[in-house]
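Q&A log
Question type: sequence-to-structure
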Amino acid sequence: MKKNLLAKKKPRILVFLHGTCIMHRNALGLSREEVIQQIIDDVDGSISDFGSYIPIGNVVKKLITWQNQGAEILYLSSHLSLGNVKKDEIVLKKYDFPKGPIFYRKEKNWNLPIEEAKPDILIEDDCESIGGEYQMTYPNLILELKSKIISIVIKEFSGIDDLPDDIDELTKLSSIS
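Response status: OK
Response body:
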């Protein structure tokens, strides 16, 4: 049913930033499992140095590919403060991410930024390092919002490189792991 919503228009794609599109700089070159362990152990200062985050894989290229097909790219931050969201903006600009607004929780409630963003597709990671589904966006949305959004879930820190380049194919997905 949700897939039919996109039959005649190009989608608004909301991509989660932390763990899906960007990661702390000291994760570079490590396996996904090692990165998750860094987060769990929380002994690395780069984890909270949000202004020094780096892209995961070829995320910028993938987002540009979708944008070039008419998709509107939107971003979702895990941050609760505008100050930290500004750091996300710096990272996106530094690495030439497609321009798009960053939505964030001003409270610990995912429904408000999702209502504001009005995405057709939400791409997020499984939040393995911080508690799994309990910390994710889509599972914590009210049913009314869920019914309007295609949810695509990837493994945390695996990147979006394996998602389809063609946005019509992307709209046919409901989850990936």
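Response note: The two ends are 22 Å apart (CA to CA).
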